[in-house]
Amino acid sequence: MKGEWTDPDRGKVKLKDYAETWVSQRPCLRPRTVDLYTWLLKKHITPYLGGVQLGKLSTALIRQWRADLLGNGVSVSVAAEAYRLLRAVLMTAAEEDHIIPRNPCRIRGAGDEHAQERPRPGRLHPGQALPRPGAARHLREPAMG
User: pLDDT tens digits for 25-51?
Assistant: First the structure.
């Protein structure tokens, strides 16, 4: 902390209310982004954390929320999107509005999407056999005759 005082009564606002206001106060968001944020809030964030007061949110609670999402079959990509939205909302609550002393979204790598490794062109996949020399030559060279 930087010696700034945070009013504990302000931390009593519920995440659902604060997050919905947060989205509505961002007029520069594209309509599709607003739709995505609204969907993430309704589907993945507020059912778990929406009733929690901002001042009661902790890194442990958020870690459990994320583990529950992943354990319930939510993809890593969607869980990362939801986490990034939650982190942005709580960053505003901490740094701009001074409702909470610090952002509890401190889970290393939680906002990252780890795409499965994609094979590069020209590389073999596990179990793929090497082509026989000259096997596809008839496709590359014009027939003589």
Answer: 999 999 999 999 999 999 999 999 999
pTM: 0.74
Burial label for 44, CB within 10 Å (0-12, 13-18, 19+), is buried
How far from chain centre, in Å, is Cα 27? Answer: 21
What gap in Å lies between CA 28 and CA 52, rounded to an integer? 28
CA distance 7 to 139: 75
The tokens for 58 are 């902790």
Q: What is the pLDDT of residues 56-89, one digit of tens each?
A: 999 999 999 999 999 999 999 999 999 999 999 9
Q: How many CB atoms lie within 10 A of CB 86?
A: 26
